[in-house]
Every structure is written in structure tokens, then in C-alpha cells.
Design brief:
heterodimer, A: mainly beta, six-stranded mixed sheet, four-stranded antiparallel sheet, 12 strands, about 50% strand, globular, B: seven-stranded mixed sheet
Chain lengths: ~110, ~110
């Protein structure tokens, strides 16, 4: 079945450090890939998405590239801020599934220290 | 637009009691999804509606769970005879159409004592 695997957290960085959160997936067909972010006490917010191979999603300085050959969608940011502290979820939807339900990874908590 | 609204935000109940949660999706979004999130895990799909029709239910949705979406607007999720294992965050999301982005509410946190 379809699944998403994320690196375990927490990830602790100093402000302005480079961030990478690894995400790999298993899916039938041609999945769309997403990163959602959950700030404390808030709902999930879409951070970025990519719908086909080699697409790069970007938003708020975050980027992720859809790599079909390695089935990966790693999240990167060149310089993190304290305000980026949150839980990040990698997710997919499958074009083979008419529900287009999201399949999530287990999440990676990021803590950025001043 | 005010986004997806969920009520209540928190619910504490005793084992064996029934609880009902409400989700108000973004206006004119015809798809509505329910997910469950336990501590330290990602959300897991429970069920979804297209307009008023419930089109899929996960095997996670035991017969103690029922969801409705009358008239294709708001939705309710009821849990009967709650168990401690039902303690979780229940998330609602809506999207304007299939293949589109899902917008999430802040969730209802259920604690079963």
C-alpha cells in the first residue's frame, strides 16, 4: 500500500542553520506530494506541494523537489528562524485512489534555538 | 472566508459516554474529510464525503463511529460508548473538488478518562 516515511525528530538547530528533513514514499501510480506544517495549538497548514516528477515546490523559503528515481521529497531551508519551530508532515495523495485522501508520515518536530 | 471550523476544541468524557464533534467546512467545498491523529503520529484517514454522500470509510472507523453530512454542508462525527483508545485529535479538512488542496481545521482533542 501507499506509505510515507520521515526522519525521526526532534531536529534541533540554531537560528540561520540549514535545514533538511528527509521524506521517502511508496505509492502506486503517480502520487502528488505535500509538506504540511503544524504550529503549536493550530491546525495543519499546507507549506508546499509538487504534482509530478522533477517539480519543485517552494514557499516561505522552504523547498522540496519531487524525485521519482529515489522516491523522495526532502524538505530544505537555507536559513531557519525561531518562528519555523513546528511539526512538519510529509504526505501524498494517489491518482489511483478516487478519494484523494492524504497519507501522512509520522511528522518531524523542528526546534530552532535563538 | 473563515476557514474550516471545528467544535468543540477540547472534549473530556468518561469511558462509555457518547460524544459528537462538528465540522464546518469552507463554504462551497464539496469534499470533506475526517482524520484522526494520535500523539507523535501523523493524521490517519477515517472517512470522506462528497457533498452529502459518504463515499469511503477506513477500517479504523469501527461500528461505534458514525459520520454524517446532511445537505452537504457541515459534518458531525459521533463516537458511541467511548473507549480510552479513542483519545486523540480529530481533524476535519475540506477541499473544493477532487485532486485539490485540503484545508484543515484546528481539530477537536478528545480525552477519554
Amino acid at each position: 500500500g501507499n506509505s510515507v516515511t520521515q526522519m525521526e525528530g526532534p531536529v534541533t538547530l540554531s537560528e540561520e542553520a540549514f535545514l533538511t528533513i528527509n521524506c521517502t514514499y511508496t505509492a502506486t501510480g503517480y502520487p502528488s506530494l505535500f509538506w504540511y506544517v503544524q504550529y503549536p495549538g493550530e491546525g495543519l497548514q499546507l507549506l508546499l506541494k509538487a504534482t509530478k516528477a522533477d517539480d519543485k515546490g517552494s514557499n516561505k523559503g522552504f523547498e522540496a523537489t519531487y524525485r521519482k528515481e529515489t522516491t523522495s521529497f526532502h524538505l530544505e531551508k537555507g536559513s531557519v528562524q525561531v518562528s519555523d519551530s513546528a511539526v512538519y508532515f510529509c504526505a501524498l495523495t494517489s491518482s489511483m485512489d478516487s478519494s484523494y485522501k492524504l497519507i501522512f508520515g509520522s511528522g518531524t518536530r523542528l526546534l530552532v534555538r535563538p | 472566508d473563515t476557514g474550516v471550523s471545528q467544535n468543540p476544541r477540547h472534549k473530556i468524557t468518561k469511558r462509555g459516554q457518547n460524544v459528537t464533534f462538528r465540522c464546518d467546512p469552507i463554504s462551497e467545498h464539496n469534499r470533506l474529510y475526517w482524520y484522526r491523529q494520535t500523539l507523535g503520529q501523523g493524521p490517519e484517514f477515517l472517512t470522506y464525503f462528497q457533498n452529502e454522500a459518504q463515499l469511503e470509510k477506513s477500517r479504523l472507523l469501527s461500528d461505534r463511529f458514525s459520520a454524517e453530512r446532511p445537505k452537504g454542508s457541515f459534518s458531525t462525527l459521533e463516537i458511541q460508548r467511548t473507549e480510552q483508545g479513542d483519545s486523540a485529535m480529530y481533524l476535519c479538512a475540506s477541499s473544493p473538488r477532487e485532486m485539490d488542496i485540503q484545508y484543515f481545521g484546528a481539530g477537536t482533542r478528545l480525552s477519554v478518562l
